[in-house]
Amino acid sequence: MTGRCSGGSGCVPSAPARTPEARRARLAARLAERARAGLARRLRVAEGPAGPERVVDGRRLVSFASNDYLGLAADPRVAGALARAAGRWGAGAGAAHLLGGHTAAHAALEEALAEWTGRERALLFSTGYMANLAVVCVLAGRGETVHADRLDHASLLDAARLSGARLRRYPHGDAAALARRLAADPSAAVVATDGVFSMDGDLAPLPALAAACARAGAWLVVDDAHGLGVVGPDGRGTAAHFGLGAGEVPVLVGTLGKALGTFGAFAAGDADVVEALIQWGRSYVYTTAPPPALAEATREALRIARAEPWRRERALALARRFREGAQALGLPLLPSPTPIQPVLAGGAARALALSAALEAAGFHVPAVRPPTVPEGSARLRVSLSAAHTEAQVDALLEALARAWRATEGADGA
Ligand SMILES: *Cc1c(COP(=O)(O)O)cnc(C)c1O
Q: Whole-angstrom distance between the N-terminal and C-terminal Cα of the chain?
C-alpha cells in the first residue's frame, strides 16, 4: 500500500491560513477537491459478524471485502473463547505491558506465535501499524537508510519516516535493483518489505532480498500480514513458503486481524531483537496492552488455523477458481497466487463505477484508488475466504462480466 499524500495540509499548496474561518475554508476546499477527483473515501456501516454475507448500509450483500481469509472472524469457537476469557480476565488489560498490563494470557499467545513462526521470541502489539513503527524505529535511525519496496504497506513507509532514517523506495519486487542500491549504500540499516503485498497479492522475492541483505549487513524486516496463516507449510507464511528461517528473515511482523480473524499484531525474532523492541519501541511502551481475552481468542484461532489446513487450501482453491473464471472473461488480473485478487480498472472513476455496479447486483467489492495504489492502477480488490462458496464466486464472476461491459468508457477513454 503506497501513500504519498496522507492528508496533511501539504497536499494542497496554498497561502497560510491565519484565521479560523480561513482554516476551515481551506479544509473544505481540500475535501471538495478530493471528492471531485473521485478519491473521497466513504465509511460503510456493516452489521453482524464479518462473514461472506453481510448487511452493509442496510442491504444484504455477499462480501469479498474482508481479510478474514480462513473464515475465523465469525467462528463460534473463537468468539466463544473470547467470551469465556472475558469472564475470566475482564474486558481490558488495565495498563501498558511494562506497567502491569502484561498477563499470562499475553505470554501464552507470544509463546504460541514464536513456536508457530520458528522464532526465539514473539512480542504482541496492539496493531500491525504499531508493530511496524516499533520495529523500523528501533532498527534504523538518523544517518542511516531504510530501503522499502515501492508497494510496501503505508505503515512501513510511515515507520521509516518516523525513524529519522532516510527512506529510499526500490522498484516493486526488484531484488536486483535493491542489491545494487545496497552495494552502493554503506548507511543501509533496514530493508522492509511486505511478504504478500496487500493490494496486489503477489509474493516478495524473499530469497534474493535475504541474500542482498546478508551481503550488505542490513536487517531484513518482512511484514507478512497477508501471508501468515495462508501461505507456506502449516500456514507459516511467505518466508516458510520459500524455505527461509530466522537466519534469513531475522525480523518478522504478523497481524492477528487478518487470517487469524481477531485483532492485534506481533513481531518475532531472536531474543535480542525482541528485547530491543521492549526497551525502545515507543509504540510498544507507551500504549495499553491489548485485552487479555483477545489474546486467548487469538490462541484459539491459531489452534484452529493449524488444525484445519483445509481452510487455507480452500481459500487458495477459490482464488484459483476466481482467476480461471476472470481470465476466461478477459479481465485484467495481477500475478497473485493468494486470496487477494485485484482486477485492474485503471482510473478511479471506472473502479468506483465497477464497485457500484457490483453492489447493485448484491456484492460488496471495494474499489482501491490512489494514493493507496499508484496513479492509473485503481482496482477492485477481490479477497477470497474459506467461508465463501463456489456458487458465490461464480455469481461474482457473472456480475463482474456484466459490470465490466457496462463501465467501458467510465474513465472517459
Ligand atoms: C493490515 C496491514 C497492516 C496493519 O495491521 P493492523 O493490525 O491492521 O494495524 C500492516 N501491514 C500490512 C501489510 C497490512 O496489510
A: 26
Q: Quote the pTM value.
A: 0.94
Q: Are residues 280 and 341 in the same domain?
A: no
Q: Which three cell numbers stand for residue 33?
A: 477537491
Instruction: Give distance in angstroms: CA of 320 to centre of ligand 1.
Output: 24
Q: Across all residues in the chain, what is the average pLDDT?
A: 95
**Residue 354 reports pLDDT greater than 60:** yes
Which pLDDT belongs to residue 2? 44
Q: Is the CB of 2 under 6 A from ligand 1?
A: no
Residues 293 and 145 in one domain: yes
* Ligand 1 pocket, residue 263 CB under 6 Å: no
What is the pLDDT confidence band of residue 32, given thresholds at 50, 70 and 90?
very high
Question: Closest Cα to atom 6, ligand 1: which residue?
Answer: 128
Shared domain check, 288 and 177: yes
Residue (of 78, 111, 120) closest to 263 by Cα position: 78
The answer to whether residues 227 and 198 belong to one domain is yes
Distance CA 68, CA 384 (A): 8
Range of the domain at 375: 44-73+309-406
> Residue 288 and residue 34: Cα distance in Å, rounded?
35
- One domain, residues 67 and 81: no
State the distance from the centre of ligand 1 to the C-alpha of 195, rounded, in angstroms. 12
What is the greatest pairwise CA distance in the chain? 61
Report the b/e string of 267-294 with b at 16+ CB within 10 A. bbbeeebbeebbeebebbeebebbbbbb
Residues 140-197: tens digit of each pLDDT? 999 999 999 999 999 999 999 999 999 999 999 999 999 999 999 999 999 999 999 9
| Alpha carbon distance 178, 376 (integer Å) | 24
Strands 265-269 and 251-255: antiparallel
Q: Determine which of 17-21, 31-35, 254-258, 288-292 has the lowest per-residue pLDDT on average.
A: 17-21
